[in-house]
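Box 4.2: Ligand-aware structure prediction
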Amino acid sequence: MNPFIQSKLPTIGTTIFTVMTSLAAEYRSVNLGQGFPDFEMSEQLVELVNTAMKKGNNQYVHMNGLQLLRERISEKIHTLYNTSIDPDKEITITPGGTYAIYTALTTVLQPGDEVIVFEPAYDSYIPNIVINGAIPVLIPLIHPEYKIDWQLVRNKISPKTKMIMLNTPHNPTGSILSKEDIEQLRSIVNDTNIFILSDEVYEHLIFDGKQHESMLRYPDLLERSFICFSFGKTYHCTGWKLGYCIAPASLMKEFRKVHQFNCFSCNSPAQFALAEFLQQKEAYLQVGKLLQQKRDHFQGLMQQTKFKALPSYGSYFQLYDYSNISNEKENDFAVRLTKEYGVTVIPVSAFYQTETNNNVVRFCFAKKNTTLEEAVNKLITI
Ligand code: PMP
Ligand code: GLN
């Protein structure tokens, strides 16, 4: 440790996704840990990027993102949510959803501000709050349905509450917000200055005919929201690291002040390609059906094991309870599963700040059927 550097994140280690993927590589296990598809993305979208590069679309685009891409996103939002979003003032293209979240937090947070965060929480949220000098106020989702206890939210609101962070569909649990949740949220934030950060990167990965309760549907919520999306999740190209943030003009103006000196503008050929590809509605509408089939196939296979499924209504994750197998801590169990049985998962305890053990681990089912089958064949032996 260099004695001259004072860590801004002294308690933070390496993200669980990198830890488990490295372990998977070391033990050559089947990696159902980190969330990324192992099947191919659309060949046509790959072709579109190649074409964009060959046509010479290789220089900076506008710092807010390619105009045509922002227009096409605005059209898509109108089709899906019947909401008008101004492509000039209310959309910014970002290098991924994580960056959009970080930038939104950095835009609004002042030292000492409180941010309500539900646990288990996607692992970037809390470090992103802390690095801005703000204070995460942690509220546990109620296991095993992982619902929000709105009375507890009311109790935790204080004059310092600057923001509430939401994530629907939810990583790691696969839970989703319902209409009742939205009504509760509305009644809580009404007549306050509280902002909302809504992480909706899994907007299309929603199952069983459920509706995605986007902040985009509710003008009174939208007016105080930063909503973050990821093309990586929608088009099976997580390595592209492209996404976008939507916020009302007055908030987006401030967001862009932060963005312009951190990223300025994102990969241009991919933006040309996505602008073209967004016109094909089926491509994003199909993805929920595909992932639902994957979830169902995986759940069917897993019935042969001692793992117990918890509900998953969205995202590409499924939690499983392993209490019929072991009482070990989640992290110990996950490591042993890789080392002894050749299957990698994510311990849900990694998404909590304090030690928590519900005997549940997260599986990513966005994988080829053969990968899922290979994993389950190993899990049957436990
Ligand atoms: N939020 C959640 C809940 C996620 O699971 C992910 C996936 N990594 C992201 C944000 C960020 O996505 P991106 O890879 O586009 O940064
Ligand atoms: N969102 C992915 C997951 O939850 C991983 C992204 C990452 O590794 N940062 O597994």
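In the box above, the bound molecule is glutamine. Residues 335 and 344 are 8 Å apart (CA to CA).
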